[in-house]
Structures
1.
Amino acid sequence: MGEDRPYTELELRRIARQQRSPEFQSWLAREPEDLARLITLVPALAELDDPWTVPGLTAIEDAAMDRFPDPGPSATDEEMQYMALCARGIGHTYLRALGVGKWVWVQIYRENPIGPALEVPGDMFYTDPGESIRDIIFDRRRGWLAEQLRHLIDLSRQQSQIG
């Protein structure tokens, strides 16, 4: 899962330590509150019988595109917090739909800070829901979240057939 090579033993130990970090444990513990807050910020989620489904992903996309009709090159702290909540909802939905995988605390690329990502069996790369919501906002990629979920489901199915 390294950028262009397998992780070394030292890197794997560092990543394992990151999973036990107080920052990550605190982030994991906040999930119920973060999801509840996202529902208040995206009222269309509250209208769904189950907001953590493909229609919920569509509601997140629509709300994000409405909130950022013409996004600039940098975001305010409030906008970053909103995108982080959307990413939390996206990741939660992906994990529920897949029934496998987990949140991990990693640095996906050297230029990025350590943060939450998904580790999904069968996928040799981490899935970054934060990048997914940025794709929606900046590239105006309506339908991208459902497409990404279908791809993850296909990978997971392939992995279960192999294993």
Note: The chain has one domain: 9-162.
2.
Amino acid sequence: MTSPADWTFVLATDLDGTFLGGSAAQREELYDWIRRHRDEVGLVFVTGRDPEYIEALCGDGADAWRGDRVVAPWPDFVVGDVGTTIAGVQGGRVVPLDDLEAHIRDAWDDRGEWIREVLRDAPGLVEQDTTFRHRVSYHWDPDAYDPESVRPLEEAGLDVLISHGCYLDVLPGGVSKGPSLMRLIAQLGIDAERVLVAGDTLNDLTMFQTGLAGAVVGGAEQVLLDATRDLPRALQCSLPGAAGIAEAIRAFALHPDPPQELTS
């Protein structure tokens, strides 16, 4: 297996609306291209999803609910749970990397139950069913939400992130997708000039703020489009999802044999 430091190109991508976005044909073209170049192309999922979802997605095609059987390729590494998980992949399992997660555990300081107590009766917030290790996540109703409810969390050094127009995440201070990805890249000895990040919602913003080449895929949230408009290496793609990623690979000339353009 090729060492990560020797990869020609690394795709670090969000999942929903990005790597899993676009038509079945567009996704299949990108996924097959990755598989054909697997020895030289690294794949990192940078997502709000948890490890169990990724194992199902790549193991048996959990995206079949989209009406097709285009199964995603396995990533080499995962920055999951909005940056609060940093993991490798071994034998079909997503395995957290303890040394890279130490700062996350310290910043979180096992405050999940305290957060739940603070927000127990907060208007416009309903806790999500999934339990995460280093974050607490809610369904967010902007009409009922009172920003004052999260002030004690912010004063305690935690970060509050709203995305997709319907989710609110409470995260360890300073921990998000971008910083966690940069820690992983540094640990692996990857040349940052060979990395493309891709996303479509506001919780992807810190990836684009790293200065890495970026694909803001077609159909992205307007708030992300506004926030990345003046970032010199954030390409606002015309094509959606996987096709937008392929568009950016070509635009940045990140591989000598890029995936072809599919407009539908």
Note: The chain has ten helices and twelve strands.
